[in-house]
Amino acid sequence: MQRYIARRLLLAVPVVLGVTAFVFALIHVAPGDPVLLMLGKFYDPQFAALQRHQLGLDRPILIQYLLWIAHLVRADLGQSISQSTSVAVLLSQRLPITLLLAGGSMSIALLLAIPTGVVAATHRGAYLDHASRVFAMAGVSMPIFWLGILLIIVFSLALGWLPPGGSIDEFGWQALILPCVALGTSFAALMMRITRSSMLEVLHEEYIRTARAKGLGQRKVLYLHALRNALIPIVTVAGLQFGTVLGGTVLTETVFNIPGIGRLLVEAISGRDYPLLQGTILMTSLLYVFVNLSVDLLYAACDPRIRYE
Amino acid sequence: MTAMRQRVCWVLLMVLLMFPLGSNLVMAQAIRRGGTLNAIVKEDMLNLNPVVDGGFEGEMVDDQISDSLVNVGPHGETVPGLATSWAVAADAVTYTFRLRQGVTFHDGTPFDAEVVKFNWDRMLDPKVGYAARQYSNLIKSVRVVDKYTIEVVTPRPNADFIDSLTTDDEVRMHSPTAIQKWGKDYGSKAAVGTGPFKFVEWVPDQRIVLERNDHYWKPGLPYLDRIIYRPTPEESLRMIFLRARRADVVFEPSLADAKRLTKDSRFVVVSAPGSTLNFMYFNTCKAPFNDIRVRQALSYGVDRKAIAEAVFLGFAEPASGIFPSWHPAYDKQWEGTIYPYDPIKAKDMLNQAGFNDAHPLSFSLHTTNVSEYVDEVQLVQNQLAKIGVKVTPNVVEKAALAGLWNPPQGQNPTFDVGLYRLKFGKLTKQYTWSSYSADAPFELTWYNRACGYKNQEMPPLLDNALTTLDRQQAVAVDRQISAIAIHDAPRILLSWGKNVNIIQSYVRGMGMDVQNWFPLETIWLAK
Which of A18, A238, B229, B402 has the fewest beta carbons under 10 Å from its own? Predict the structure, then answer.
């Protein structure tokens, strides 16, 4: 198991480096100059040239990237150009908020999707199944920003129950409820459909018939025997969807005014803040790799027959 | 003091520089002290360090924290700030300021002439910040005459000098003790001035908190206990905050929202003439935009009145010259006479320039991804289609537009035509120089480049306007500049936008100036 984890982590290195190299090349191809934006009204060509030299922006792109890697090896993510602060400090401030948002959204989605999916499977063709299908269609169709604004209008503006987003230190954990619901809904819809189809497949297996023949109750059959065996596709899709959730935080954080990694990423792109952009992309890539590794390890927990050598 | 008197007279003529919008209400009701003003701003500030660009929001916040030697008064006049009086010597370059006594910074540091010298020497030190190169053209030397008298020498006679002191964030006074204590963190973790409010904290992308300065040098002010600025980029969320009374004021809302709330008694839409120019700029380095006939034809082919009404919903005036209607160099006689919408004439002129139905003019029009800009581009596209011009909209983000506008040194810009909006404050000579000549005697900002436009008559006139301290003469020169700029049409000046903000009906005592910086010291909450 440990060897497997070590091998996967080693394999993650080229993946992460590949992503960062791709983004690095892409942002340099786009027009825009970080020094121009940094100096703002104090821009003048000579001084800007000096600043570019000091920041190493006058070197070839490949050299710039290799220098970034060299600093990264020494655990140095560099200084943000636009915010004059260490990239590591900025990430450490913003990452917990985004993780809470992504984790909260995933939890809401799974709590909503799994029971609904199971019920839809066991009541195939009945009203509950149709209702769940409508929910799934609606959930997938509604854009996050639209749903987000709708939730704010209803629960914050009209009913006054919850804050319309904002920061946790100011409005408490309640500030995350609406953003998590907005982000988790579309994810829940997809997961519910996966749960339903996976459960339908398992429910026709002979071991389920055997369990029932033994006289086990419906709940035990469904949740101990059927769901556990149906979990592997659910966990797989959940892991894959984590990337979508991370992408969704960019929109959600903007709509709900949450100061997380998503907003930092937008600021890094619009300010052409290369070190900050690289740091943010590195962090999100690492998160994605970590989640996928965790999903693979979860397979073993779901199905004891799976062993990693 | 003669110069000062002249200046006061001139500035009084600057119509509507500041509107005493809330003054009647202040008279009618007893002022209520205390409370927190929740203000929504579009973007987060960048910094409060005066020698680094803090962005519009940074300047707006610093305006509450720090003071300048001279200020803009309630009717637009230049009034004493931390200087009680000032005079310019016969050489037109030596200014002497008498400083206010008994003023202390928020950290207790006393304000005196040494403080002014420290701040301005720091501003002029290229090792410290980015402002040095620009301001070395404003101030040559600073000398302490005595504890409360300071002498400043400008490199050359400069009509903008006093105006720059009233408007520019960089020349404001900050505590030398705090600057030395906080070092590189000054401006992000601390900012200490003599202004009505003290800096409490800045949590990036979340809030900027200020609290009342109990020892403010203006007796009885400010009225509020606290101000919290919240950067909120999402337009709809800004309106939700306002409707939910989580915001007392929304700075620079979308004009559609402002229009919608105009008739809602719960809110007051506050608008005043401003200095925001909406314009199209030609890349005159390349054909066919190096041909004056093409530029003039396109100027006749754009219906600026229709654009002002459709896109700006009444919150803009069609441009009648290079200055807005409140500016002394504005000439009322020009109203409606500058490139009136005339598609037939436009088409004829294009024909003369070699463009017709068989060989139509086509170009790409760049702008940024702001809905109002995109609307403007679409209207221009439709209007120019009527004279046979094919416009391809090219919407890019701000950083990309800046890159296109300002290519690397030695290279010409490659774009065709751009459409943008810029806020020019008190419209100093920086504005006219950067718009209409690339050879300024001072450093020009990256934006608002002249894009290759050259007219030999311009630089001497621009220089004359810069060095003429007599306001009447300066107005005459400015009008000559305006006439040439209109004739040559290196830009199509679409409209001058108003400053628009929305406040709750209980917010009182608010003024607005052309820069759209609220003087928040007089605001109070009737709730």
Answer: A18
